[in-house]
Amino acid sequence: MTTREQLNRYRAKRDFGVTGEPSGERRGSREQGRFVIQHHAARSDHFDFRLQVDGVLVSWAVPKGPSTDPRDKRMARRTEDHPLDYDTFEGVIPAGQYGGGTVQVWDRGNYRNRTEHRGEPIEAADAIERGHLSFWLDGHKLHGGWALTRIRGGDDETWLLVKRAGEGADARRRPTHTQPESVLTGRTMKQIDKDERPGD
Ligand code: MN
């Protein structure tokens, strides 16, 4: 599947004449490595976790957001792949549009795929296909190892996002609550909404 085909579902849901989100016309390289976590106050509040794999951002919606406590299993619903330049999108998607609501760049940085299969490293795309991805995050707020594991396939693909013990693990930390600002602009969700609500 080419990057262009991968983004068909993303584009079909959106009217780029109305929403300020990127259309993905700027093509990505095959370089690996970026991640972004966007706080998205849509119909329900959630965190969108996105990892760059082969020129797109493979995406999951995590209702409770990431945890730094290895005992927490955070449900993550797979959503459509997003274009690479979505990793700096922050603003307000107009009401009535797909995903209408406020989007904030809550954390971003680089990740390294660390998945092994039978003792050998495998590529991120293969790992996702197989349903288990182990990776290392170097973000502004999040550091260390996490894993994503698919627990249900089909149309409503469901995964669990779990912190690995070791570096960055801390059962007392609640970064989604104690560090609510954008790593891109320093703004809170409320400030983004106030600054960028269309029609104001
Ligand atoms: Mn979302």
Care to describe what's here?
- With 200 residues, the protein is mostly beta strands.
- The chain contains 5 helices and 11 strands.
- It has helices spanning 3-6, 8-12, 124-130, 175-178, 189-196, and strands at 34-41, 45-53, 56-62, 74-83, 91-93, 101-113, 116-117, 120-121, 132-139, 143-152, 158-163.
- The strands form 2 sheets. The chain has an 8-stranded antiparallel β-barrel with strand order 1-2-3-4-11-10-9-6.
- The longest helix is centred in the C-terminal third of the chain and has 8 residues, at 189-196.
- It is globular, with a radius of gyration of 16 Å.
- The protein starts with a helix and ends with a helix.
- Residues 27-31 have low confidence and may be disordered.
- The structure holds manganese (II) ion (MN).
- Manganese (II) ion (MN) binds at residues 40, 42, 46, 48, 61, 99.
Which kinds of small molecule does this entry bind, naming each only once?
Answer: manganese (II) ion
| Beta-strand content estimate | 35-45%
Radius of gyration over all CA atoms, rounded:
16 Å
Measured between the Cα atoms of the first and last residue, the distance is 41 Å
Please outline what is shown here.
This protein is mainly β.
